[in-house]
Amino acid sequence: MGKKKSSAPKVVYKDPPPAETKEVESQSLETQTALSKLGHEQQLGAMEYGAEMDRTNEEFFAGQDIRRVQASGAEDRLGIQERGYQEREGTKEAGAQARLTQADLLAGQERQIGARGTEERLTQAERYAGERDLVSDRGAQDRLTQSDLLAGQERQIGARGEQERLTQSDLLAGQERQIGRRGEEERLGIRATGEEERLGVRARGEEARLTQSDLLAGQERQIGRRGEEERLGMRTRGEEDRLTQEGLLAGQERQIGRRGEEERLTVGTRGEQERLTQADLLSGQERQIDRRGEQERLTQADRYAGESGLVSDRGEQERKTQADLLAGQERQIGRRGEEERLTQAERYAGESGLVKDRGSEERMTQSERYAGESGLVGDRGSEERKTQADLLSGQERQIARRGEQERLTVGTRGREERLGIGKTGEETRKTAGQAEEFRRYKENRDYDQSRSAYRS
Predict the structure, then answer these.
(1) Distance from CA of residue 224 to its chain's centroid?
(2) Is 38 helix (H, G, I), strand (E, B) or coil?
(3) For 294, which of 126, 234, 260, 440 is 20 to 30 Å away at the CA?
(4) If 0-12 CB within 10 Å is exposed, 13-18 middle and 19+ buried, where does residue 383 land?
């Protein structure tokens, strides 16, 4: 069994007796109390008067703004209404004038079509009569010219064959000498060209590597500068777009409604006028088509009659001319074949030796060209590999620099978008706060007015 714990003694406190109070009259205290009460009442009166004046001023200025907006809206509506009325009247007048003009135009065109058909038939008849005589005369002259031409060509063919054979023998002898000389010169030129090209390729590779390094350094600086400018432009553009959007939306909402009404009225009037104009145009075109078809049929009949005679005369003259032409060509072909066979025999004899000499010289030239090109290809490959290595290293630095700038640009764009979203939210909250303050003001005003009405 455990021991019993000893309990602490309790202390009981008694409330003291209340103090006795005794009122003592004091003129100063009463005066101070009266002054405080009077000052409080005056302060309340001044506050009520100030609130009343504020409400009066607010109602007056709000009424002024409402009347100003109403007057501006009325002026805009009147202007749009008057503009729409004027446009409809102008469309009606334009339609009437267009129909009158179209009627006069169609009447004049019908008269022109009849007169044109008559003149064309007369002109066609005279043309066919003249063409038949012309075909006959032309056929006779062509046959005479053809006979003289064939005789002269036969003489030319004989003389040309003799001259070509003489020229061919001299040409082959000169070509043999030229081929030998050309082979020696080509080999010397190829050797010198190979040496110069190898030097040029080496120098070109060095210059290309220097140019590439300068270009890459400049591009890296340009990328950094372009990133900074794009971020500044994005920031400024975001601020300006937000301000412009607020003012633009407010004006567009007022204009859209009134413009829609006027455009519907104008479209209706324009459609009515266009339908009237189209009806008059179609009726005039139908009359015009009938008149044109009649005139064309008459003209076609006269044309067929004239062409039938013309074709017959032309065929007869062409057959006569063709017979004379074929006879002369047969003689010409025989003479040309004989001369060409003689010329070909002499050409083959000279070309056989020429081909042998050219083949020998080309083989020697080709061997020296291959020797020079093999060294040139090796030097060019070496220089291109060096240039490619420098290009790749520069491109790697450029890619890293561009990635860094793009990351900075993306960060700046994100900050600008967040600022824009924050600004939009702030403006929304301000608008909601102003609406809430106005609602509370109206409630207080209604409450004060009801109290004033209740007191009165």
Answers:
(1) 30
(2) helix
(3) 126
(4) buried
